[in-house]
Design a protein that fits this description.
alpha/beta, five-stranded mixed barrel, Enolase-like, domain 1, binds flavin-adenine dinucleotide, binds 1,4-dihydronicotinamide adenine dinucleotide, 23 strands, 13 helices
């Protein structure tokens, strides 16, 4: 006999598990199906983000930064280190423990909210006017019926043509988070978010890192001034990034040879001990069986409207498997909004205020429009910048790299975008998100008291700089 629910979520990543929690809070009888398993076959809730994405990458970014600081940063503070050693096995073990704690956290939240969890692959069987049938295959074989289904099946890494991932020499994000010894020569294809974060981890641990990027510009999605500043800092750190390359082929023997044309079109080749391929991700609908019910896909993504409705009544889709940025917090916001819509509420997700963060050192974070976007759209704006060099807390911290930049409407002064490269940019950007949600002006931020000494004063000074009245420069 099929078990019946008000809502079944397929996928237990940040989109799916948060949607399930919100639905349960709203009194819906909720189930979540997820197929992630540990090497010994146990469930591991949390999806890509928890298992091989946000969480383990941030754990390794922190550990490798500690190693770099101990080796190169502490001496300036008068803290001398002798006999510094890297225990990579322990570093990887700690990362796995951080992941496990996060997996367990989701299990706890499911129990607390009385969400039924099914470990296995969910696939559509039938979709009727007021209910859907979903088969679960895996550790448990079940049939579920639900009035509402949320597809939250996430994404998988895109492989380079002719270079399938073997997770030994050619690595996706999965293998890149578990290299058992520091490679001497590490190649990375793609200077996007994963390339920069994982390239940074392994450079700090001792690899010579070369990143090969197809586009002629660096970090095209970021504000140009911020990208230029980040480029200079990364180059100084020893991260070698080649732009405008065209990969011609990848040969795997004992090591990996990448043949490519450089920006001038000259044929080149480079030999690496390992190669990370981080050239974007594709929507994951494998095994979902969308054809069985006529669920519409567009370029591989589940097609949805702005409220995450698919073409089928009662079937919704959220997160990486649908259009929009592939970010955990975007998936979560969509999950909450869909659960609330199902419960009859009228929530709204503002795509203009979704923050981006790249967790390099220094961190890069932004929200809203870049200066180049505003120019292209013909919007009259004023910009104000403030360097961390002029911020006392940054000097005390020992990291004065980077700057904060505000762009505001020339007439109304409403903040249109905030761009940061600098220490703790991931935390500082939250103030900008709140300000933009409340349609604050740059003057509003300039009028608010910010604690002294704090990096947040650089936010205030950059906001004041829009009106050419920064106080500390
Ligand atoms: P996912 O997290 O991919 O979860 C989908 C789940 O559904 C998985 O568990 C999958 O196994 C399961 N599933 C798929 N099909 C089925 C099926 N048919 N039946 C049952 N289960 C199924 N984003 C950030 O915001 N911040 C970061 O710092 C960040 N760092 C990242 C670092 C890396 C290395 C990577 C790869 C990604 C990172 N991301 C980050 C992106 C983030 O991980 C994704 O945007 C997020 O995980 C998307 O959530 P989701 O719920 O849509 O899908
Ligand atoms: P990405 O889209 O960020 O970057 C891919 C890069 O590869 C681009 O610069 C692209 O021009 C380049 N590229 C594409 N094809 C290429 C080719 N054939 N040769 C050379 N370069 C090529 O994708 P990435 O880094 O794989 O990450 C996937 C997604 O995961 C991100 O877009 C982001 O949404 C998410 N993510 C988020 C993080 C965060 O929020 N801190 C961290 C890591 C991932």
């Amino acid at each position: 006999m099929a078990q019946s629910f008000d809502m079944v979520v397929i996928g237990g990543g940040p989109g799916g598990y948060v949607a399930a929690i919100r639905a349960a809070q709203l009194g819906l009888k909720t189930a979540c199906i997820d197929d992630w398993k540990t090497p010994d076959g146990k469930p591991a809730l949390g999806g890509t983000c928890t298992n091989i994405g946000c969480i383990p990458s941030k754990a390794l970014l922190q550990s490798s930064e500690n190693f770099e600081q101990a080796g190169h940063g502490f001496a300036e503070h008068g803290v001398r280190m002798k006999g510094l050693e890297l225990d990579l096995a322990q570093m990887l073990k700690r990362k796995d423990q951080v992941v496990k704690a996060s997996n367990d956290g989701v299990v706890y939240l499911f129990k607390k909210n009385k969400i039924a969890f099914f470990h296995g692959r969910g696939s559509f069987v039938k979709a009727g006017a007021d209910s859907c049938e979903i088969a679960v295959k895996g550790a448990q074989n079940e049939t579920l019926t639900a009035k509402n289904v949320i597809v939250a099946t996430g994404s998988v890494p895109r492989a380079l043509s002719g270079a399938a991932f073997d997770e030994k020499l050619i690595l996706s994000n999965d293998g890149a988070l578990a290299i058992p010894e520091v490679p001497k020569r590490l190649g990375v294809v793609g200077a996007g978010v994963i390339g920069l974060e994982m390239g940074s981890v392994w450079r700090r641990l001792g690899s010579e890192v070369t990143i090969l990027e197809a586009l002629p510009v660096f970090l095209g999605a970021a504000d140009e001034q911020i990208a230029r500043e980040a480029w200079k800092i990364f180059a100084k750190q020893g991260l070698k990034i080649e732009l405008g390359v065209k990969i011609a082929g990848v040969k795997v023997k004992k090591d990996v040879t990448v043949e490519y044309a450089d920006a001038e079109g000259k044929a080149r080749s480079a030999v690496f001990d390992r190669l990370i391929v981080s050239i974007g991700r594709i929507a994951n609908t494998e095994g979902l069986n969308p054809e069985a019910v006529g669920l519409k896909l567009e370029r591989g993504f589940v097609a949805v409207d702005e409220e995450c409705r698919t073409n089928l009544a009662g079937v919704w889709a959220i997160g990486d498997v649908v259009r929009g940025p592939m970010l955990a917090h975007k998936a979560e916001e969509e999950g909450v909004a869909v659960a609330e819509r199902i419960a009859g509420q009228k929530p709204h997700v503002d795509f203009n205020t979704i923050p981006w963060v790249i967790y390099t050192t220094p961190e890069i974070a932004w929200v809203g429009k870049t200066e180049q976007q505003l120019k292209a759209e013909g919007v009259a704006y004023r910009a104000g910048t403030f360097p961390f060099m002029a911020n006392a807390r940054a000097r005390a911290l020992g990291d004065t790299s980077g700057l904060v930049k505000f762009v505001a409407d020339a007439k109304t002064d409403v903040i249109l975008g905030v761009h940061i490269v600098g220490a703790f940019a991931s935390e500082l950007i939250a103030e900008a998100v709140v300000a933009m949600e409340f349609r604050a002006s740059s003057e509003d931020i300039g009028m608010i008291c910010h604690a002294h000494p704090s990096l947040s004063e650089a936010m205030k000074d950059a906001a004041l700089a829009v009106d050419k009245r920064a106080l500390n420069i």
